[in-house]
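User: Sequence for PLA2c domain-containing protein below. Tokens please.
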Amino acid sequence: KRQRVNVLVSAVIWWCFLSDAVPNIALLGSGGGQRAMVGLLGSLVQLDKAGLLDCILYLSGVSGSTWCMASLYKEPDWSTKLETVKNKIIRRLSGPGVRWTDALAKLKNYYYEKDIFSLTDVWAVMLVTSYVKEFLREIIVWEIFLFCFTLQTTTNLVPSSDILNIHAAVMLIILIVMNKNKMKKQDEIDMLYLQGNNICCRTALECIIICNTNLQCILYTMHPHSPPIDECYQVLLKLVDMNLDLLKGTDPSACDQFIRTTLTDLSGGQRPLIRQLEKLNDDKTAGKKAAKQYVMQYTVDVCDYFSLELNICRCMSQWIWGRHYNFLHNMTDDAVPAALLESETRDYIDAGLLLNSPYFSVLREERDIDLIISLDFSDGDPFMTVTQTAETCKKLKIPFPEVNIPSEDVEKPKDFYVFKGQNAPTVIHIPLFNVVNCGDKIYAWRKKYGTSRVPYSAEMIAELMQVSGKNFTINGAKLLEQICVVAVAKYFQAQARQI
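Assistant: Structure tokens for PLA2c domain-containing protein:
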């Protein structure tokens, strides 16, 4: 790869044949859902056509950009046949989506295969799959491990994790009041007290029903062919009534029959593995104990049927994302921070929630990066990623150029920015939508390709590919010029070290 870079750059500056003068170049793709996936693909295709793709040593991304990367890396030597790979990806994105039954089957596989199940699995299967139109197990690997930051542990919480807990509480409250109706006037109550109330058996079962109903609403929104919401709700409601029948000493057989019939219908005719109801003897103390034990096991059997849904509810209530066993747990190494050693598990989230571009994956000193090409597909401020990176690097004393953005450019960004600094990598920043490729319709383009949009049509994909590629069609000469400048600087630095 370095030899091919040599050949390319030597066409402009002959002395770059020396290997020490070949610049290390990183291409960054920010997050942005399907907009980032299609935008990165269009950018790579145009770089290839301009003969500049071989200049890239590192390709790094977060969130939506990793969806594109996961698709690319399924093909060996994808960069040598990018046009073919591109066509295959576009055909898939323009085709039919994954069937609900297949998505649910895949999610169940994740649930039974993994030691720790989390919302990351739900997100990858139910949401990402609806956009990429296939199952990409690699997405989870790219998202969690390669481009992520640890925000929370199970025993010790860093300050930022408090925000996560607040978000979880707010999310559940929003779900419960989605119908916009105020049932009755209620005095303000401390959130911890509200959580404490959930300890009693009746309230806990009702909370399961609320969580399950809200979960079914969410899944139905993404997959209209999901199991009926009302039937799932009624099964759990009857389960509560069955427990109440036991406490009141009444016959629960009607509830039992309803539960069995409904579960059989939901499973497509397969009889649920629930023990047969026996006549409960309420006349003797021993009989009451046996009845309680029986109904308890019966409840467990029904909950096992809904094990996946209930586990998702548990992950929602506890806001569990990307939980994995901590391989550093109980290690004895002074070089490793104590916070990384204490907890048995660690929780990881998409890096895009912290910084929507993978700058720090390439800013390690060992990378020795000379030039960073930042493609920003963010929804909103197109300069937030580069300005936040500059601020963080300044605090951590990591070499990074000063970033000064004219105030008028925030709403009307240009198509090509170059930031330079002493003993720091050169940074080229390219907003996806700008005044050059979108004219005065930047806001309209952002709205049309919003992050929460339904999967793009074939026409939208082709249009976005063209717009993202145009940034390199117009600026190919400027990019090559900056590569040459960096190569010359590196050449003279190498010569100075030899003197």
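Confidence is low (pLDDT under 50) at residues 138-227.
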